[in-house]
Amino acid sequence: MKKKRYVQLYILVALFLFVHLFIAKFYSEPYPSLVFPSFSKIGKRHDIIVVPFQNVYAIDKMHDTFFVNKKKVFSISKLVHVNKMIETVKLKEYLISKYKEDIKQYKSKKIIDILNDKQLFISLTKKNLQRLYPNKSFVSLLIIEGKRKYSAKKQEFYNEVFDERKTLIKLI
Amino acid sequence: MILLEKFLFQSYNTSTKHLAIYRIIYCVFIIVFTGLPSFNWLSNYFNYFFSPPKLSIANLFDSFPNQSFFTFLSVINIISFFFIFWGIWTKYSSIIFTCTYILGSNFVFSFGKIDHGILLYITPLFLGLAGWGRYYSFDNWRRKTTHSEEDTASTDRKTFIISVLALMIGFSFFTAGIVKAYGGWWKWNVEAVRFHLYDHYYSWERVKYLANFFIKIDNHLFWKLLDYLTLSFEIGFLLSVVHRNIFKYFLSAAVIFHCFVLLMFNITFAANLIVYLLFIDWEKFRYPSFINKPNQSTNYKIKIIAFLISLSLLFCWIYKALNVHDTSDYPSIIGITMNLLSKPDISTILIFLLSIPTLAFILFIQWKMDIKTTQ
Fold it and tell me: InterPro entries of this UniProt entry (chain B) (predicted)?
């Protein structure tokens, strides 16, 4: 192949990469992807910065609450993945609760598959909790999400929580 | 177009022998520092979390395949990696290595978050096609003994492949930079780097290394300087790919950039460093005599030692792939050593300690290295 052809091919690859960027930003990031993390969010100078958090607790039969390590409970090595996983769990819990209201839809294949997947998830979580706390018997998981504030000007972290949301997942 | 033709084909030309040396360095880097990713920890247990990217192979599935599929994928990935190292059917091994990684990681990223360490794993696909298995390989020995025909890429094709890899690196940085600019990083009254430092520090509890030091800095000029430097570096990266010499300076800056990201945000992009190494001035080096004289006895000894170490590691990783299902990677030699000593994994820090002075030095200064070895 002539050099000129290779240069044309090179330009074509560049165009393809731009289309790929366009799709990733305005539709959905494909995989494989060459789009690097952008960290595009910004905070104003001397602003009050909002810091989100996402904690998981295990509740035992005595209603005692234990703060648990998300990575260990869900058997995942990276925290960034765990946070996304919790988003999916919340969505599926919502779907189950929504479909429960309509018995017809509750018997659909889609929801039966989700319920089967939930059973596997519960058995994995229980196994991991058993390994972490051998003497405890847990009955549910509680996901608490919320936001806290940090003052960049005063360099102070405020402990009050706002926009708090809770998701309870029964393990029995 | 003529300028592009001149710049690309003059500057990115790398000899097949240097590509072969790079292949060895690439594999040694993985063996010593990073290890390989494992896929066999994935199973149906994770179906409740299954949320693949819309545009991915994993989205063609309703749930995770069963564990034996991932074990098979991991074993093929490991074997193809060692075949690249030894130079056995190097072109095909390189393609298989990249494909199995992409297929496996499709499912790893089916929890909704895509990681961005792909450059390390697509490099073999490109360089396999460029002919990095031509020398210092079993393929080369087989060709000599059977007098079979060479399967080498033409110089133009090889240069084209390397320049496309450079384009992909430049483009990756550009994607991050352009989105930052769109998000408003350029505005004088915002402190974007500082904002992300707080976010990582308090939301993700990334408080190691120099995060504590940076979080106390309250100087608008300092933070704005970091914002503008990041923006210009990331956006400018794409333009730099037209000529290898300019590109090298951006790669040096990238090493420093990754170092800052590690120290400040505790995020590691260490694996990219070995990809950057491809673009150094290979011609400027004088190599140890055992590389230039393949029949020397030192050469055989080194080959046998390297083969035995890599063979042991191959068995170790295969054993792990078949029997251990809760690990997300197959550890490097440093990882195994640290594990045996019950010490935390320091491979990330070690990579930086080793790479920053060497890589920055190589890229900044046209230094003639003359390594003398005992005959």
Answer: HTTM-like
Given CB atoms, is B341 within the 8 Å cutoff of chain A?
no
- From B53, B183, B198, residue closest to A49, measured CB to CB: B198
| Contact between chains at A81 and B113 (C-beta distance less than 8 A) | yes
Q: How far is A118 from chain B (nearest CA, A)?
A: 6
Question: What are the pLDDT digits (tens) for B136-176?
Answer: 999 999 888 887 766 666 888 999 999 999 999 999 999 99
Residues 244-273 of B with CB under 8 A from A: none
Do B189 and B141 have their domain in common?
no
C-beta atoms of B112 and A123 within 8 A:
no
The C-alpha atoms of residue A27 and residue A92 are separated, in whole angstroms, by 22
Q: B interface mutation test: which of A40, A111, A126, A161 has the most B CBs within 10 A?
A: A40
Cβ B272 vs Cβ B357: under 8 Å: no
**B233 close to A (CB below 8 A):** no
Q: DSSP labels for B317-350?
A: HHHHHHH--S-SEE--HHHHHHHHTT----HHHH
Strands (E), chain B: 36-37, 285-286, 329-330, 369-370
**Is the peptide bond preceding residue A32 cis, with omega within 30 degrees of 0?**
yes
| Residue B375 contacts A where some CB pair is shorter than 8 Å | no
Percentage of the residues of chain B whose pLDDT score is greater than 90: 51
**Same domain for B294 and B323:** yes
Residue B235 lies in a domain: yes
Tell whether A49 lies on the interface with B, counting CB pairs under 8 A: yes
Q: Are residues B147 and B166 in the same domain?
A: no
Asked if residue B174 and residue B257 are part of one domain, the reply reads yes
What pLDDT is attached to residue B373? Answer: 41
What is the rounded (10 degree) CA torsion for B112, B115, B116, B118? -100
Domain count, chain A: 2
Residue ranges making up the domain that contains A35: 1-40
Query: How far apart, in whole angstroms, are the C-alpha atoms of residue A155 and residue B170?
Result: 37
Domain that includes residue B239, residue range = 155-282+349-368
Q: How far is A59 from chain B (nearest CA, A)?
A: 21
Are residues B359 and B276 part of one domain? yes
For residues B242 and B178, membership in a common domain is answered with: yes
Residues 49-108 of B with CB under 8 A from A: 49-58, 62-63, 102, 105-106
A34 and A113 co-located in one domain: no
Total structural domains within chain B: 2
Q: Clarify whether residues B354 and B221 are in a common domain.
A: yes
